[in-house]
Amino acid sequence: MTKLFLVEDDPTIVKVVQDHLKQWGYECLAPENFQLVDQEVRKQAPDLVIMDISLPYFNGFHWCQEIRKFSEVPIIFLSSAEDKMNQIMAMSMGADDFMAKPFDLSLLVAKIQALLRRSYQYGNQETVYPLKNFQFYPTENFLKNELTSVPISPNESRILQLLCQNRGQIVAREQIIELLWQNDEFIDNNTLAVNITRLRKKLAAAGLTDIIQTVKNKGYLIEE
Q1: Confidence of residue 156 (pLDDT cuts 50, 70, 90)
Q2: SS3 of 6, please?
Q3: Within 10 Å of residue 53's Cβ, how many Cβ atoms?
Q4: Residue 187: helix, strand or coil by DSSP?
Q5: pTM above 0.70?
């Protein structure tokens, strides 16, 4: 059974969401201690995390950062605030998707299903892409060479895979947004730019600087 971890402090919301997700065959756990959310995520090893922003002790942004120190598990943020800054902040902290409260349970299930598919199911054929002295494994969400392995998030992996598939060609921003979020109403070019920046930082930390080029007013490019 697919395991989800719902970080939400409203017991009514937790019960309603858990009951609904159970009907879809999902096991949905919740924190026992809101001071140890990261430790509980590490222990439970869920397939996906649903994270509220307003929480006791520390907010969801904090816990997302802490989880990203040891895991690239897909994370969907929940928030009653619909402003763009919360969405951009969530993405910059490592989130993969965003839903504004109040939310429709059917839409939540659809987002969970879509994020699980793009995170864990790329198809049966394994394609490996060379990037300088690294090999990029999109089905596993990491880059590897003889010395090290670089984990990246599912969204970052999808972006990098699309750019590798179109190596030497400009990939329009709209094409990447469509691939990742199916024109989600909450997603815009700023959100994409945050994801690109996160990916570039991880690549640069591994010595892969300037792999992804920005083509002004057009999109992104990996040169041949």
Answers
A1: confident
A2: strand
A3: 22
A4: coil
A5: no
